[in-house]
Design brief:
Layout lengths: L6 E2 L9 H6 L10 H18 L4 E5 L3 H12 L5 E6 L2 H12 L3 E6 L8 H10 L5 E5 L1 E2 L4 E2 L2 H10 L3 E5 L18 E5 L11 E5 L1 H8 L10 H8 L10 H17 L1 H21 L14 E5 L6 H12 L1 E2 L1 E2 L8 E5 L6 H29 L2
Bound molecules: pyridoxal-5'-phosphate.
The site of pyridoxal-5'-phosphate (PLP) has 11 residues, from helix 3.
């Protein structure tokens, strides 16, 4: 059961189960007290299960972008060469952050919507052996394309690079084996596949990455992982954390354990498959025909169909929110998120509403054509 006014079918934030919402309806506790340590300890256990890691996982009171910035500011020093796979809006942002902190991006540009080839990553490393780190968005939320992370992880390990992954829009919905796939820093957010409120960034950091942090050449303050490491030893955070959100996160992680990570990933896959085949059955085309994400589906708008009107009809008539395209895709595609607590009924209802909205616009387009060319 979800408490909500509108059905969020955007790629985050997502619908929040009552149990998670209700977990926040309680008094605030002291973040230097015993009760907090118990809360944080349980969260740590849940996060290790979710990330499939034995690494330290830090919880930052910031949106997911803070997690990305934290990963970069703590490991990339001015002048460091960084391989960045750029295939959409969020990977462009990774590049921007690296540049802001003085890193030198070595870009592997992949046309938006095309799948990423791990061997291209390897070729670029062979041409630039002094690359220090590889940065990649696992699930490009702007295009709906997922990257071959396991293979890229093997390459990163083979050449002893630091692998930093933005898994903000898919951790908890797609398989990510942090340790097995040699992911050194993995960043996620709470407002997507975890079905928790926005406002916390989750950052897993390997021992290898911690060495980079200890040897970094620049200071940091709010996102200083050295501080987080010290406080985490006693189950605390350096600054006053968003305690209510931590209550929500603990409950969200309990729900994930109860469902089982494998089942949850399978549910995301099933929902995305139903959505994709329903969209194709309406005669619409996917933005990408390769490497489909199971958490965000991006599809093209045919000529004469106005995507904004489709979104408005869905929202105003059916109470369903779906998202516009981002960056160069604005006004050209629509995006539907299948994240968190989404199940088959929500998908079927969204498909029903989408078909109605589309048919209405198609009928109007035919009628207008008829009036103009009687
Ligand atoms: C892949 C990816 N990275 C980063 C972000 C940024 O997250 P936030 O808005 O929580 O900072 C998003 C948000 O949609 C995302 O999808």
């Amino acid at each position: 059961m979800l408490l909500r006014n509108k059905l969020l079918m955007v790629p985050g934030p997502t619908n929040i189960p009552n149990r998670v919402l209700e977990a926040m309806h309680r008094s605030i506790i002291y973040h230097r007290g015993e009760e907090f340590k118990d809360l944080y300890r349980e969260i740590q256990d849940g996060l290790r299960y979710l990330f499939q890691t034995s690494n330290e996982v830090f919880v930052l009171s910031s949106s997911s972008s803070g997690g990305v910035e934290c990963a970069i500011v703590n490991t990339i020093s001015p002048g460091d060469k960084v391989l960045i796979v750029v295939n959409g809006v969020f990977s462009q942002r990774l590049r921007d952050v690296v540049e802001i902190y003085g890193g030198i991006p070595i870009e592997l540009s992949v046309p938006w919507g095309k799948s990423i080839s791990a061997s291209d990553v390897e070729d670029l490393i062979l041409k630039n052996m002094d690359i220090k780190a590889i940065l990649i968005v696992h699930n490009e939320t702007s295009t709906g394309v997922i990257s071959p992370l396991a293979e890229i992880g093997d390459i990163s390990d083979k050449y002893d690079k630091l692998l930093i992954v933005d898994a903000v829009s898919d951790l908890g919905g797609e398989e990510i084996k942090t340790d097995e796939w040699h992911v050194d820093i993995c960043v996620a957010g709470t407002q997507k596949c975890l079905a928790c409120p926005p406002g916390l960034a989750l950052v897993s950091v390997s021992e290898k990455a911690l060495d980079y942090v200890r040897n970094r050449s620049r200071p940091a303050f709010y996102f200083d992982l050295l501080r987080y490491i010290e406080y985490q030893k006693r189950m605390e955070t350096p600054f006053t954390p968003a305690i209510s959100l931590l209550f929500a996160l603990r409950e969200g992680l309990r729900l994930i354990k109860e469902e089982g990570l494998e089942n949850r990933i399978e549910r995301h896959q099933t929902c995305a498959e139903i959505l994709r085949s329903g969209i194709k059955a309406m005669g619409l085309q996917m933005f990408s025909e390769e490497a489909f994400s199971n958490t965000v589906t991006v599809f093209k708008m045919p000529e004469k169909i106005n995507p904004n009107e489709i979104r408005e009809t869905l929202e105003n008539r059916y109470g369903i929110l779906i998202a516009d395209g981002m960056g160069a895709l604005k006004g050209k595609v629509l995006r539907i998120g299948t994240m968190g607590m989404i199940s088959e009924p929500e998908i079927r209802f969204t498909l029903y509403a989408l078909e109605k909205a589309l048919n209405e616009q198609r009928a109007c387009a035919i009628w207008t054509d008829h009036l103009n060319h009687p």
